[in-house]
Automatic annotation (TrEMBL):
Pfam families with a match to the protein in the record: BACK, Kelch_1, Kelch_KLHDC2_KLHL20_DRC7
SMART domains xref list: BACK, Kelch
Record organism: Caenorhabditis remanei
Full protein name: BACK domain-containing protein
Tagged with keyword ATP-binding: no
Polar residues composition bias: residue spans: 564-575
InterPro entries: BACK, Kelch-typ_b-propeller, Kelch_1
Feature: compositional bias, Acidic residues: 554-563
Length: 575
């Protein structure tokens, strides 16, 4: 059969039928349907029918997707996925041509839906399929997933797509030679090679020398390098660390700032990104979900905000999202990510009309997939300047200030049941502190007890009590930020007797990275948000950095912390 243009012009309002390979007919109007016109161009007119039938080289299932009779997103059952893959195979060639934009959009929708299932058990298979069907952007995304997770999948979790063991040696060599492989120790590459060879040792051992040429000798210690002296190892530069610490906004020199800063663990220096926030923000929330940076709430130094903004690292443009139900200030340490959703609890709600600043007992959750904030169950106590962390599939919220008193109470939120339960109190009232999940424990770091800023660290020991650790911060600090990074708890900036720029690392795991120390951030600030930015190095490097920023002057060290005295704020919220 010859598929050709039927000769009809697009402005003819003529009833026709699209006929699938199985002979199923789908009535359409060329004048009203762009996809029908595309199918008319690539189809063939049946010569044996008085009514115009357009015979297309697609199955009925594919035609339904193209005509919108069935949504790609409705494919959720396991048996549907084979048909979806067959449809992708049928339209792949046409979807790569500019003459068929509607077919191309259907191809993109199918690829997007398939990509949404990407995980350890199918990443190599999906990458292979995307390349096979010329889905370049999706192939790049699946490759990024593989590069970032390869070492973890093979060496740590030991759960990996069986297609990994079917890789040709040339493809595995190309993969392991990639600068983007995420690893803490170069010797892990040798482990990946061993795993691949062990699947068929007799036939694959001969490829070891070729594969070992991807191991970078400059990243090995002297003893390990000597043990591989029989191989020609790579002399390429060491791979750069993929995960970074990112600082978003904060209270800088008596005003909110719009800066994004990040720590480069390889050069051991902080860098200032050319990317800015949509507005100056402090005491706000921020989160990274599926490569998107979200900022929400906080204060721009003038009023409390309820806006949510999203930043794509592909376009580097801010997009406004759904607003929170309430303007919320003092939420930097009380916002967390769980199950790819953003949760935020408490805060201060400054109402412009009544000029009254009240602490909140409400919570909200944002789902990026639906772009909607919804209310959660309420806290038992109203509180701002509290801290939250995900632990054992629940969200712990502790301490804070209720407008009159600093709190010691702890509440645990159950995301499934949408309710809070009271928990064992902290040993003392505290506010402006950090709560960090680290080493499979919860740690309270720093804070203010009403009289002094604390350098103490308390751990929840799973035995029904909070236990004070022997380790302490060098500086007692509040309104700081902290996160778990590379086997350490990293405490950043905040307020001591002045606004701080210093960083501290503590409580290392046995395999913690060898930092020695982390230098001060470029500008002293408080009320900042710190994120563990997974796989963001390439994004931030591509965006560029501010090459020269002025050295800190004495005026950067504020004697007063701006709004960081929120636990002592007057009822009008002016601090």
């Amino acid at each position: 059969m010859r598929f050709c243009n039927s000769g009809l012009t697009t402005n003819e309002k003529s009833d026709v039928a699209i006929v699938s390979k199985e002979g199923e007919r789908f009535e359409v109007k060329l004048f009203e349907s762009e996809i029908a016109r595309e199918l008319n161009y690539l189809g063939a007119v049946s010569p044996r029918s008085l009514q115009k039938n357009i015979l297309v080289p697609f199955s009925s299932n594919t035609v339904k997707y193209l005509l919108g009779l069935v949504k790609v997103s409705d494919c959720i059952e396991e048996e549907d996925w084979f048909g979806l893959e067959k449809s992708l195979e049928e339209i792949a060639g046409f979807g790569s041509q500019p003459n068929y934009p509607k077919i191309r959009s259907t191809k993109e929708a199918i690829c997007d839906h398939i990509l949404s299932t990407l995980d350890d058990c199918n990443c190599f298979l999906l990458h292979k399929k995307f390349r096979q069907f010329d889905c370049h952007s999706h192939a790049n995304k699946s490759l990024e997933y593989i590069l970032y997770n390869l070492i973890r999948m093979v060496m740590i979790d030991r759960v990996i797509d069986v297609e990994f063991f079917r890789l040709p040696p040339e493809e595995l060599t190309e993969l392991l030679d990639n600068d983007g492989v995420n690893l803490d120790k170069e010797v892990y590459v040798v482990g990946v090679i061993d795993k691949w060879i062990s699947a068929d040792f007799r036939n694959r051992e001969k490829f070891r020398s070729m594969l070992m040429s991807t191991v970078r000798v400059l990243s090995l210690d002297e003893e390990t390098a000597k043990s591989f002296s029989q191989y020609h190892l790579s002399t390429k530069k060491p791979r750069k660390t993929c995960d970074l610490i990112m600082i978003v906004g904060g209270w800088l020199h008596r005003q909110a700032c719009d800066r994004i800063e990040w720590f480069d663990p390889d050069s051991k220096e902080w860098k200032v990104s050319q990317q800015r926030l949509p507005m100056p923000l402090a005491y706000h929330g921020a989160a990274i979900i599926e490569g998107m940076l979200y900022v929400f709430g906080g204060s721009n130094g003038v009023r409390t905000r309820c806006e949510t903004w999203k930043l794509s690292s592909l376009t580097w443009k801010w997009e406004k999202c759904d607003n929170m139900f309430e303007p919320r200030n003092y939420i930097s340490n009380s916002s967390v990510v769980y199950d790819d959703k953003i949760y935020v609890f408490g805060g201060q709600n400054f109402r412009e009309i009544t000029r009254v600043a009240t602490r909140s007992r409400t919570g909200e959750v944002y789902d990026p997939k639906t772009n909607r904030w919804t209310l959660t169950g309420s806290l038992h106590d109203m509180r701002s300047d509290c801290a939250a962390a995900v632990f054992d599939n629940q969200i712990y919220v502790c301490g804070g200030f209720n407008g009159d008193n600093i709190l010691s109470t702890v509440e645990v939120y159950n995301p499934i049941g949408d309710f809070f339960s009271r928990y064992i109190d902290l040993p003392f009232p505290i506010t402006g502190h950090c709560l960090v999940t680290h080493q499979e424990h919860l740690f309270v770091v720093g804070g203010f007890n009403g009289a002094q800023r604390l350098n103490k660290i308390w751990m929840w020991n799973r035995k029904g009590e909070w236990q004070e650790r022997s380790e302490k911060l060098v500086f007692g600090r509040s309104t700081s930020a902290a996160c778990s990074y590379k086997g350490w708890i990293v405490s950043v900036a905040g307020y001591t007797e002045r606004v701080e720029s210093t960083c501290e690392i503590l409580l290392p795991t046995p395999d913690a990275a060898c930092f020695g120390s982390i230098p001060p951030i470029p500008r002293a600030k408080s009320a900042l948000k710190v994120l563990h930015a997974q796989n963001w190095r390439r994004r931030l490097e591509n965006r560029g950095v501010v090459e020269a920023h002025l050295a800190m002057s004495e005026e950067d060290y504020d004697d007063e912390d701006g709004e960081t005295t929120s636990y002592m704020s007057r009822s009008d919220g002016t601090g």
